[in-house]
Design brief:
It is a single chain. The chain is an alpha/beta fold. Helix content is 47%, strand content 14%. The chain contains 13 helices and eleven strands. Strands 1, 2, 3, 4, 5, 6, 7, 8, 9, 10 and 11 form an eleven-stranded mixed beta sheet that branches. Strand 3 and strand 4 form a beta hairpin. Helix 3 runs antiparallel to helix 4 and helix 11 crosses helix 12. The longest helix is centred in the C-terminal third of the chain and has 24 residues. The two termini are 27 Å apart.
Length: 304
Amino acid sequence: MNKYLSVNPEVSEALSAGKPVVALESTIISHGMPYPRNMETALNVERIIRENGAVPATICIIGGKLVAGATEEQIARLARGGSDIAKVSRRDLPIICARGLDGATTVATTMIIAAMAGIKVFATGGIGGVHRGAETTMDISADLEELAMTPVMVVCAGAKSILDLGLTLEYLETKGVPVVGYGTDELPAFYTRRSGFGVDCRVDTPEELAAIFRAKLDMGLRGGMLVGNPIPEEYSMDEKIINKAIDEAVEEAKRSGIHGKATTPFLLAKIKDLTGGDSLESNIMLVYNNARLAAKTAALLCGR
């Protein structure tokens, strides 16, 4: 057992008994939305996973320990800490752990800790990707590299359209990561259901998702699998409105010299302001939708 890893007893018992477990990230708690909506959303996501037959395991770092299955008290600690909590990707892990600090895990780091604990399915909002202008900035999310290395299925609403979605898919193709659309032939664009960029295949049931990922694991192929689950129609935003807000936010980030790991939180906060809060509500609803699908798929992977 990794000496830095702390697995919640409920999660450990579920894994030992072959029961389904779904990992959840914590950056969305500390950096994705304001308090107390972040706390409320995190607990609702855990409830939804339980209602759909799986055990939730919110991933985070508390006092230098890699936590797989945060308690309600630990979730509250992250929610109240907000942006004062370190946003932790792969490169940050040894520093945060050696110093005994708290950390909110990105998609990449959540995948790492989930894999350490033996969790195969992870539900999130959206993944990071290739940023616009990456041909000169080389700003490419570590999420993509982790998907190429770590055997975890990531259920998300696609990639945020603040990114270059075409280049993001090209990168994943180069790394051999299967990109599957749930009920869609296109990669969802987070706030909207369509992007114009095709996925590797479409599936229409959790049974198909489980079968594809099981085959990947059985063949011993390296890396994970990305599942694009579109935001429910009733919460999808108008493409013109959201794209206008994204363009304005990207331009302001450039003018303000925002770059690196500060980029996404800055852009999401700006987009929320520009859309009068509508983007935050859409964000919450798509996370709930992903949690349902992830729990159902995890149960089928366990033969339940």
